[in-house]
Write a structure and sequence with these properties.
The protein is α/β, with parallel strands linked by helices. It is built from 17 helices and 19 strands. The C terminus is likely disordered.
C-alpha cells in the first residue's frame, strides 16, 4: 500500500484509460504508468517501491472538468495497491456508489448529522476580528468562521466518521480500524463505533500520543483499543493498513483523510462536503450571495475539500489552502507538501509528496499535529496544477499568534491546525477590498492544544498583535 514513486523522474506519461500493470515486489501498480529504466527501493511497508529515473514532461492537465469517477483527478489519484486489496476496494466502491443514491441511507445519515453530530454548524460573523483587519480608512473584509469546532467530538472529522461507520455496518463488518494523528479522527471514529456497536482499533504514533494525551484518553473512554506505533501519523497509517490487510473479510479501514487508493479520497470528500453545502445556504441567508474567499488549513486535505467542493465550479470564489511552514520553508522542518513537494505515489495514491532525491519520504513537521503528513489529497494536487486553488503557508509561530488572537478577541479556542488558516488573514486582508466576504473553516477546537500553546516558547504574553502584512 505504501508504494512510493518519484514522478518527477518518470520516463513516461500517465495513462488513466489504459490498464498497465507492473509488478512491484508484493504490490502492483494498476492503471498507472508506463515506465522504463526502473530501480527498486524499500518502502515503509517492507515491500518494494518503484523509483523513476528520468524527467517527466509537464502533464496535460484537464482544466475544464475534474476526473473523479474512476479515482483520477488529471494525473493524480488511482489505485496503487497489492492485488489482494483490489477486490475489497472494488466492493467498497460499489457500496459507496449505492449509498449515494439510497434514500434510506441518506435519511439515516441526515438524522445522525443533525441529532448526533449537531449540524448544522454556525457561520459566525467574527466582529472583533473583522474590526482588527480594517485599514486606516475603516475598510476591510467581513470575516466569518464556519464553526466545525462545535461538532460532537470538537472537529469536522465526525462528519465522515459517522457516515463510514454506517457504511461499514451495512457491509457486515464487525471491526473498524483507523489511524489518527492529532486524535480528532480517532475520537470521531471511536464515538461513531460506540454508537453503532462496532469494535474499534485506533493506531496512533507515540510522538502524537505525548502531544495529544487528552484525545488519547477520550478514545479509550469511548471504548476504542488504542495501539501505539513508533513515530507519528504516517507510521500509524502504515500500521493500520497492515492490520486491515490481515483481516479483509471482517474489518473495515475507516480513513479520515482525502488520501489513499480510490475510492477513499472521493468518499471522505463526499462525506465532508456538507461543510460547503451549509456554507452556501448560510451565506445566502446572511448576505444574499456567495462567499468571495474560502480559507482552510491543509494537511492531507479533508477539511479543505469539505469546504471547497461545493464551490469548485464557481471561478469567482477564491479557494485558499494554507499549509504548515513549521520552522520555515527553507528549513527541513515543515509540512508544506504543495509548496515544496514532488509528485509521487504513497499510501496507494499519486499526489504531491515530501521526499528526498532517492524518493524516500521526508518526515514532516508542524506544531499542528494533524497537519504532519508527508502527502496531500490527489484532488487538492489537481487543483494546484490547474490553478483553481491557491496555496500558501504559515509558520508555527504565526499559527500560535493567530490562535492566541482568536482566543482573546472572539472567545473561541481554535485548534492549532485551524489556526494556520486564521494566521493567513494577516497577509490576505490588506489585499482585499472593503466588504469582501471571507469564510475561514474553523475545523476543530483547541482544548487538546491548550497545554502546548501555554507552554510554548513562542506564546505571546503581550496583548498587542502584529500589524497586517501584505502578500
Amino acid at each position: 500500500m505504501a508504494c512510493n514513486m518519484r514522478s518527477d523522474l518518470l520516463a513516461s506519461q500517465i495513462c488513466p484509460t489504459s490498464s498497465v500493470k507492473r509488478r512491484i515486489g508484493n504490490a502492483s501498480v494498476v492503471r498507472a504508468v508506463v515506465v522504463d529504466n526502473n530501480t527498486w527501493a524499500k518502502d515503509v511497508l517492507g515491500t518494494s517501491s518503484l523509483i523513476m529515473r528520468r524527467t517527466l514532461t509537464k502533464p496535460q492537465v484537464e482544466t475544464d472538468e475534474r476526473q473523479g469517477n474512476n479515482g483520477r483527478f488529471g494525473r493524480f489519484g488511482g489505485k496503487f495497491v497489492p492485488e489482494t486489496l483490489m477486490t475489497s476496494l472494488s466492493k467498497l466502491e460499489t457500496e459507496f456508489n449505492l449509498v449515494l443514491h439510497d434514500a434510506k441511507f441518506q435519511a439515516e445519515l441526515a438524522t445522525a448529522l443533525r441529532d448526533y453530530v449537531g449540524r448544522e454548524t454556525p457561520l459566525y460573523f467574527a466582529q472583533q476580528l473583522t474590526n482588527h483587519y480594517k485599514n486606516k480608512n475603516g475598510k476591510g473584509p467581513d470575516i466569518y468562521l464556519k464553526r466545525e469546532d462545535l461538532n460532537h467530538g470538537g472537529a469536522h472529522k465526525i462528519n465522515n466518521a459517522i457516515a463510514q461507520a454506517m457504511l461499514a455496518k451495512r457491509l457486515g463488518r464487525k471491526c473498524v480500524v483507523a489511524a489518527t494523528g492529532a486524535g480528532q479522527h480517532g475520537v470521531a471514529t471511536a464515538a461513531a463505533c460506540a454508537k453503532l456497536s462496532l469494535q474499534c482499533t485506533i493506531f496512533m504514533g507515540t510522538k502524537d500520543m505525548e502531544k495529544q494525551s487528552s484525545n488519547l484518553l477520550l478514545m479509550k473512554l469511548l471504548g476504542a483499543e488504542v495501539k501505539s506505533v513508533d513515530g507519528n501519523f504516517k507510521e500509524a497509517t502504515s500500521e493500520a493498513f497492515r492490520e486491515w490487510v490481515g483481516n479483509l473479510e471482517t474489518s473495515y479501514y475507516l480513513t479520515g483523510t482525502v488520501v489513499g487508493p480510490h475510492p477513499c479520497p472521493s468518499m471522505v470528500r463526499e462525506f465532508q462536503s456538507v461543510i460547503g453545502r451549509e456554507t452556501r445556504k448560510q451565506a445566502m441567508e446572511k448576505w444574499g450571495g456567495k462567499p468571495d474567499v474560502l480559507i482552510a488549513c491543509v494537511g492531507s486535505g479533508s477539511n479543505a475539500l469539505g469546504l471547497f467542493h461545493e464551490f469548485i465550479e464557481e471561478k469567482d470564489v477564491r479557494l485558499i489552502g494554507v499549509e504548515a511552514a513549521g520552522f520555515g520553508l527553507e528549513s527541513d522542518s515543515h509540512s508544506a507538501t504543495l509548496a515544496k513537494g514532488d509528485v509521487g505515489v504513497y499510501h496507494g495514491t499519486m499526489s504531491y509528496l515530501l521526499q528526498d532525491e532517492e524518493g524516500q519520504i521526508v518526515r514532516p513537521h508542524s506544531i499542528g499535529v494533524g497537519l504532519e503528513y508527508p502527502g496531500v489529497g490527489p484532488e487538492l494536487s489537481f487543483l494546484k496544477d490547474t490553478g483553481r486553488a491557491e496555496y500558501y503557508s504559515v509558520t508555527d509561530k504565526e499559527a500560535l499568534d493567530a490562535c492566541h488572537m482568536l482566543c482573546r478577541m472572539e472567545g473561541i479556542i481554535p485548534s492549532l491546525e485551524a489556526s494556520h488558516a486564521l494566521a493567513f488573514l494577516n497577509k490576505l486582508c490588506p489585499t482585499l477590498s472593503g466588504g469582501t466576504k471571507v469564510v475561514v473553516n474553523c475545523s476543530g477546537r483547541g482544548d487538546k492544544d491548550a497545554e502546548m500553546i501555554l507552554n510554548h516558547k513562542y506564546y505571546p504574553m503581550e496583548k498587542e498583535w502584529p500589524a497586517s502584512q501584505k502578500l
